[in-house]
From TrEMBL:
Source species taxonomy: Bacteria, Bacillati, Actinomycetota, Actinomycetes, Kitasatosporales
Domain HTH marR-type span(s) in chain numbering: 7-142
Molecular function per GO: DNA-binding transcription factor activity
Any single Pfam family the record assigns to this protein: MarR_2
The protein's name: MarR family transcriptional regulator
Length: 157
């Protein structure tokens, strides 16, 4: 593969992922709205469903800034959908955890989420194809993590 082909592949990949991000955000807003959530609120609540996490940990998992997560976490706490609890590992970095109201709101998203998952699986050609799509995206994310950690942009001419 030539340098030009590799650059074209990178550009097409980036544009495709940017488009996917917009598409996922749009459909997530539709799914979250009946539950009284936004896509961003759902994203942060979803990150802490398995276990409470500090804001910095949520930001790492989601790949966004700590400040963005902090703003949303504070709103979720204010709305009674999440709560801060002490962090035994770090006195100042409290853990965010969903409240029963937060879990109930996420639960109201489940039927639409299940329907969308089924529609996507069907559109992609079945569950096996859907699983392969997920594997490719996870592989791309892992590769970008590895490359990004050691990549430094060349100096401008």
């Amino acid at each position: 593969m030539s340098d030009r082909q590799q650059q074209d592949a990178l550009s097409r990949t980036a544009l495709g992922v940017f488009r996917l991000n917009g598409q996922f955000l749009a459909v997530s807003e539709k799914l979250a709205e009946p539950a009284g959530l936004t896509a961003a609120w759902w994203q942060v609540l979803g990150a802490v469903l398995p276990e409470p996490l500090p804001v910095a940990g949520i930001a790492r998992v989601m790949g966004i800034t700590r400040q963005s997560v902090q703003r949303i976490a504070d709103l979720l706490v204010r709305e009674g959908l999440a709560a801060y609890e002490p962090n035994p590992a770090h006195r100042r970095a409290k853990l965010l955890t969903p409240t029963e109201a937060g879990r109930a709101a996420i639960g109201r998203i489940e039927p639409g989420h299940a329907e969308l998952a089924a529609l996507l699986a069907r559109e992609l050609g079945g569950q096996e194809a859907f699983d392969e799509t997920v594997r490719v995206l996870e592989r791309l994310s892992g590769a970008l993590d590895a490359v990004g950690a050691r990549y430094t942009a060349p100096e401008a001419p």
